[in-house]
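P.,

For your records, the input lines for the assembly:
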Amino acid sequence: MSRERWNEVDHFIERQLLGGDPALEAALQSSADAGLPAIAVSPAQGRLLALIARIHGAERILELGTLGGYSTILFARTLPAAGCLITLELNSDYADVARANIARAGLERLVEIRVGPALDSLQRLAQEHGEPFDLVFIDADKASTPAYFAATLELTRAGGVIVVDNVVRDGALADPDTADAGARGMRRFHELLAAEPRVTATTIQTVGVKGYDGFTVALVEDPARS
Ligand code: SAH
Ligand code: DHB
Ligand code: MG
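Structure tokens returned:
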């Protein structure tokens, strides 16, 4: 099966199910114009993220890795008026692009971008003792995913969901000798999942316009329900 066929199928899905989306297309265009890497979730993946948020009824969302705000916009649109999304981004130039894209989409009142290393921002969030999050999307530097999972688990309510992008990395997830720091991080992340009684998780492999990769969905179990 060729990569061209994966792309054709993603474009078929976009035509049949996703339709045009001016705010999202403008966000991608301004991101490209500003020289950001083209690594946002695909349109079909983005629709899935928004569906998960809606199915879950998420009102407080935490995102790690804003880039130009593409996934941020998709999540923020699902929020009720009293909802909120906090998104963490290392690169202040990327955050500026995202802020403009989020404003153009009319979502600035729902979204707070925190600039800096995500681990520092997570430590600050823990100190603030705010309401826990309903949904977390981990999509920043891949090597730090184990630390991001450990930190965000403490910030997620029982019954909450943690979604992690880019966990399969061209299949390197299954290679114990991989030299790729991101893939090593994702292997370690799976060890943490396996040892963590508070979550039930699975990982789904994906192909498409972003190549061969995958994502993990983890449910934070509610002790009162088991
Ligand atoms: N979620 C976005 C894509 C994020 S790409 C989308 O799908 O639209 C990954 C992002 O993580 C990049 O913008 C990168 O600058 C950011 N990043 C890398 N290291 C980081 C760190 N230590 N803390 C916070 N963000 C980081
Ligand atoms: C990269 C990051 C992503 O979030 C992604 O979806 C794909 C690639 C990267 O850093 O290479
Ligand atoms: Mg990603």
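Two observations worth noting. DSSP finds eight helices and seven strands in the chain. The mean pLDDT is 97.

Regards
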